[in-house]
Task: inverse folding
């Protein structure tokens, strides 16, 4: 809510500077988001009288005005049609500044000298009016500085109103808070009118069919009003609060809404069928055209204001075109009502129509302020539009409101706050907030009755907050918390996550975080023609874009997209990982399965050429080795890599599952040509991996147990074989492990050769095998026996032979 | 000290020095070392004879002999180095300016770094880290947090819906309810995670991160809320950081407080970052509203507590001087490499 300081000052004395007031409001819970000075820069602007207007010799639309500046008579060029002889208007002289920052200079316009400029209101930032120059009262003396003519300087406060404080969406509400927080009393204001018209009972009636939706509806009638623009001061305040000026009558209802917080509506009395009001629910299929010209389909969610024949307004939301005030309006009926917040909110949501009125009603208006606001409006109507006011107000208060009587324990308040505020100080706070305090002799308890505008105060704890606010949050002591260690342990994946991140970082990987939502097409390149598990999307009903319309089922698209982005920006050697959730829709479950995954990508150059290294591109064994160390480092034992085809997103010939026993815990391999193409990367050497964190956790041994290390020396043997190229190294290692039995300590591949020195269909592979016993020094003969058994078994199973020489 | 022994030592030293200076061939080094410095060498045998001296004489003589051994060894090493370098006397030391063999080192995402730091501060205070689902029931995200279907405060957060009663969580607060549902007080937890709001412009991303905190016990007061968060802010932003608590509104806390710190950019004078207020909003907090206890079956008269939540991107932006929130999710290496 934007509100002028001078307007606030009409309701409460303020001796603070704008900054100090801003602080007081913010610390009272009305956060001031900005304070804007208005009319502070009116230097060099003064009242000038137009003495003579002659046509500009070189421009049809411009005239030359001779104006009296009080000290001088000068010529200015002007284009406004209301610049006529005898009129007084603001004149800016060279040196002055317009509200948009333009500095005024003396100059020639189409060849004619202009010693200044006659100004419209918007050029000074006062309103948005640019219909013509601003006309000043005839009584003004030429030469008077404009700043002394207007209620300036002024400051506009931008106050953020929390949803629980609809009462503060008004000048009066903010003034009340200032009063409560500074101790200055509220001022009284003009309201009501000496009614000289007929008695209202003979002019109209109000019937309410839905008292729950409309507990109170008051109406007044004013006859023979005169429709015209509102005066400058009212238009100025509306403009600063962000409301457009329409006409004196409409402006009055908006002005009173901003001032008192009570939305009002003025109907053309003569356009109301049978001149009466009826409040009812809309029927299904009913159609109604609102003031903005939009035809709206209604249903019983919406509450309607009707006349004797037809709907004339959407209650609490917007008036109708059919009863709008227009140029020929003579008689008006002014509505001031209270509508049920939930009814208004549902109607407004249902129609997708939110207005200043609905904003206030759905948060809760002041049922006790209905009549005083109406009287305030009648005062302004009489002042600005004349007319004869009917005697009395039609007040149908069908469901009277009873204010809550809240039991309040001062001691409880002090316990919650950690304070020792006296009971009498608390009572003073309540009184300052216009709350009634009742005591029934019980020392430990008070009864507090909030005023009708405080719809947020219902319970003891609400009063505790009021005590805290008025006492000042700053004055509540800062206490050390006493924290009892809480039960339960942290989820094991959290611990794992920290370890994984640290290790991945040490392996040279950088962490990325991508959006959880993706395009449903993002998995197309991974799954190919036939939809698979990765297509089990959880869909967002109201996505921002189709590219963010489903929850991701894989981390690979995010990694690929990130790779593409970085390559486009000339960062081509990448090692990235993401730890995050993927989501799988489940039948018969409201929520998807949320699975934590670790995934990564390596591409480009593994090692740059340097004084100690040759350049080498990334390959499968880089990522495999990384994963092996990662898994070992996390404490996983006995995992193995098994070649697999048809892994979504992976190259058919270079992809592998990672297994612990029979459980697949992850995938690793080259990205498939389809994936590489989809992300416009260069072919080859894009390695991917994915690990399922839950599967890893369940494969982890429950606890770590120390194993005593061997005291006796190890015996080493080298084993060099020539075998068919298609035989996997893992097969040989398995045989070695099996035959080595419990004496085998480790196997290490130290050489691999494929080339012209051996048969094309063969490869040579060399192992270093270590044996150790925990019972004694190994005897060479025993080891030789094992070694020979291995060679024999390898020969039998794979046809591999010892390499000669 | 026995002058004879001293003379013998000095003479030995001179002879050895002369001999070593005459060496030109590296292969003569080892025989020299054995002759003088080896286990059975001349110097060693002389030193053994120290044993025949009296108790009074022995320390001084031992020191003297040892000094000669040290000098001689040093001289021997110098000669050895210069001969091995192939240039008599003029040794080229190792070029320490040649780049070392550097292992690759990656980077953690700044959001991760900030979450870790926040969680560490609270863990040290005794809070336990917990988590909850990203796709949340309306009940946990709103209703049980005292945000019924027709509550205007629902407008404060624009929500992504999965179905009528399922949403992408708009804050980490539903975790509070889930924890209280399964655990009786005392409770002290901290819950980091992703949250989602239907909002995307220069200063908003539709996904971001929050950390939520909750403490419920007997007689917990607003004063302790102030103490806890003051400690946190001093740890996070420095112990001289000024902060203030000001009244605000959250449906699930009462009283509610917004916590501001003095603008780290302008120091309070007013700048664009702080919208010329001199203060930066860092945390939302408050005493847990009794309505919430009703949903989790806690006795509102027996227990009290506080909850708080903060946006991680905002803290990271202030901490590292990042001016564009979009950078967090572009994952540009030129950005990531800086953390
Ligand atoms: Zn600042």
Result:
């Amino acid at each position: 809510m934007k509100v002028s300081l001078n307007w606030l000052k009409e309701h409460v004395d303020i001796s603070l500077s704008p900054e100090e007031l801003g602080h007081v409001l913010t610390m009272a819970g009305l956060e001031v988001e900005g304070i804007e000075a208005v009319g502070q820069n009116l230097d060099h602007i003064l009242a000038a009288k137009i003495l003579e207007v002659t046509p500009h010799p070189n421009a049809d639309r411009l005239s030359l005005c001779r104006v009296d500046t009080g000290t001088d008579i000068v010529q200015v060029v002007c284009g406004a049609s209301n610049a006529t002889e005898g009129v007084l208007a603001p004149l800016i002289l060279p040196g002055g500044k317009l509200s948009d920052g333009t500095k005024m200079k003396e100059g020639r316009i189409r060849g004619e000298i202009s010693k200044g400029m006659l100004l419209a209101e918007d050029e000074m930032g006062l309103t948005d009016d640019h219909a013509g120059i601003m006309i000043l009262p005839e009584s003004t003396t030429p030469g008077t500085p404009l700043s002394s003519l207007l209620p300036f300087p002024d400051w506009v406060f931008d106050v953020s109103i929390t949803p629980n404080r609809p009462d503060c969406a008004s000048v009066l509400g903010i003034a009340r808070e200032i009063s409560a927080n500074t101790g200055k009393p509220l001022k009284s204001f003009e309201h009501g009118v000496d009614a000289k018209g007929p008695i209202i009972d003979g002019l109209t009636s109000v019937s309410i069919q839905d008292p729950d939706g409309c507990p109170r509806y008051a109406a007044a009638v004013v006859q023979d009003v005169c429709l015209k623009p509102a005066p400058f001061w009212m238009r100025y305040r509306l403009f600063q609060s962000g409301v457009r000026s329409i006409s004196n009558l409409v402006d009055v209802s908006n002005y009173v809404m901003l001032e008192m917080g009570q939305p009002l509506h003025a109907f053309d009395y003569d356009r109301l069928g049978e001149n009466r009001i009826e409040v009812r629910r809309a029927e299904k299929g009913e159609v109604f055209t609102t003031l903005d010209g939009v035809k709206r389909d209604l249903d019983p969610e919406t509450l309607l204001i009707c006349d004797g024949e037809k709907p004339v307004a959407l209650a609490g939301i917007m008036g109708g075109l059919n009863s709008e005030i227009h140029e020929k309006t003579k008689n008006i009926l002014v509505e001031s009502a209270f509508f049920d917040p939930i009814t208004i909110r549902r109607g407004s949501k249902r129609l997708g129509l939110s207005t200043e009125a609905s904003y206030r009603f759905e948060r809760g208006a002041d049922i006790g302020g209905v009549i005083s606001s109406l009287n305030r409006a009648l005062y302004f109507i009489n002042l600005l539009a004349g007319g004869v006011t009917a005697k009395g107000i039609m007040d149908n208060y069908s469901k009277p409101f009873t204010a809550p009587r809240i039991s309040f324990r001062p001691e409880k308040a002090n316990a919650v706050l950690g304070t020792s505020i006296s009971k009498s100080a608390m009572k003073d706070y309540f009184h300052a907030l216009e709350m009634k305090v009742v005591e029934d002799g019980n020392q430990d308890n008070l009864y507090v009755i909030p005023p009708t505008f405080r719809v947020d105060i219902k319970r003891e704890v609400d009063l505790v907050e009021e005590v805290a606010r008025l006492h000042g949050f700053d004055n509540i002591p800062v206490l050390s918390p006493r924290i009892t260690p809480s039960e339960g342990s942290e989820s094991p994946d959290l611990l794992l996550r920290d370890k994984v991140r640290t290790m991945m970082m040490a392996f040279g990987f950088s962490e990325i975080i991508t959006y959880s939502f993706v395009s449903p097409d993002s998995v197309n390149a991974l799954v190919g023609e036939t939809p698979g598990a990765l297509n089990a999307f959880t869909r967002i009903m109201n996505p921002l874009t189709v590219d963010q319309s489903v929850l991701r089922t894989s981390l690979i698209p995010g990694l690929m997209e990130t790779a593409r982005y970085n390559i486009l920006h000339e960062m081509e050697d990448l090692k990235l990982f993401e730890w995050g959730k993927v989501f799988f829709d489940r039948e018969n479950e409201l929520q998807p399965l949320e699975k934590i995954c670790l995934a990564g990508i390596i591409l480009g150059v593994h090692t740059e050429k340097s004084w100690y290294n040759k350049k080498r591109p990334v390959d499968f064994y880089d990522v495999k080795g990384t994963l092996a160390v990662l898994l070992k480092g996390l404490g996983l034992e006995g995992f193995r890599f098994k070649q697999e085809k048809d892994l979504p997103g992976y190259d058919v010939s270079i992809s592998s599952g990672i297994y612990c026993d029979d459980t697949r815990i992850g995938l690793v391999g080259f990205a498939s040509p389809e994936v590489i193409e989809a992300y416009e990367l260069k072919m080859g050497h894009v390695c991917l991996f994915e690990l399922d964190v839950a599967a890893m956790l369940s494969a982890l041994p429950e606890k770590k147990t120390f194993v005593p290390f061997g005291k006796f020396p190890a015996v080493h043997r080298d084993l060099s074989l020539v075998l068919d190229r298609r035989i996997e190294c893992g097969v040989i290692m398995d045989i070695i492990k099996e035959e080595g039995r419990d004496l085998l300590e480790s196997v290490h591949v130290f050489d691999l050769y494929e080339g012209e020195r051996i048969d094309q269909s063969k490869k040579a592979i060399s192992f270093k095998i270590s044996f150790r016993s925990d019972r004694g020094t190994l005897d060479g003969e025993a080891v030789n026996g094992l070694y020979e058994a291995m060679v024999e078994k390898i020969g039998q199973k794979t046809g591999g032979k010892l390499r000669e020489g | 000290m026995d002058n004879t022994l001293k003379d013998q030592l000095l003479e030995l030293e001179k002879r050895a020095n002369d001999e070593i200076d005459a060496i030109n061939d590296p292969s003569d080094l080892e025989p020299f070392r054995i002759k003088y410095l080896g286990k059975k060498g001349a110097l060693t045998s002389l030193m053994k004879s120290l044993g025949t001296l009296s108790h009074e004489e022995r320390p001084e003589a031992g020191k003297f002999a040892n000094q000669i051994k040290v000098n001689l060894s040093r001289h021997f090493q110098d000669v050895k180095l210069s001969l091995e370098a192939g240039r008599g006397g003029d040794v080229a030391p190792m070029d320490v300016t040649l780049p070392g063999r550097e292992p690759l080192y990656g980077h953690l995402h700044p959001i991760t770094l900030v979450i870790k730091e926040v969680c560490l501060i609270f863990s040290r205070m005794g809070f336990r880290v917990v988590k909850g689902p990203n796709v949340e029931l309306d009940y946990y995200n709103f209703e049980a947090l005292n945000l019924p279907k027709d509550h205007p405060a629902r407008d404060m957060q624009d929500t992504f819906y999965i179905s009528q009663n399922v949403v992408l969580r708009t804050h980490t607060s539903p975790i509070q309810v889930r924890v209280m549902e399964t655990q009786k007080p005392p409770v002290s937890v901290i819950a980091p995670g992703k949250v989602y709001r239907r909002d995307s412009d220069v200063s908003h991303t539709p996904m971001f991160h929050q950390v939520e905190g909750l403490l419920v016990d007997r007689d917990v007061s607003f004063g302790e809320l102030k103490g806890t968060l003051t400690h946190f802010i001093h740890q996070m932003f420095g112990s001289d950081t000024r902060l203030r608590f000001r009244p605000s509104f959250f449906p699930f806390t009462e009283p509610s407080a917004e916590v501001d710190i003095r603008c780290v950019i302008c120091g309070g004078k007013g700048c664009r970052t702080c919208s010329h207020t001199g203060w930066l909003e860092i945390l939302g907090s408050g005493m847990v509203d009794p309505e919430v206890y009703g949903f989790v079956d806690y006795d509102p008269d027996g227990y009290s507590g506080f909850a708080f939540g903060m946006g991680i991107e905002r803290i990271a932006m202030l901490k590292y001087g990042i001016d564009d929130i979009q950078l967090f999710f572009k994952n540009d290496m030129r950005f990531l490499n800086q953390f």
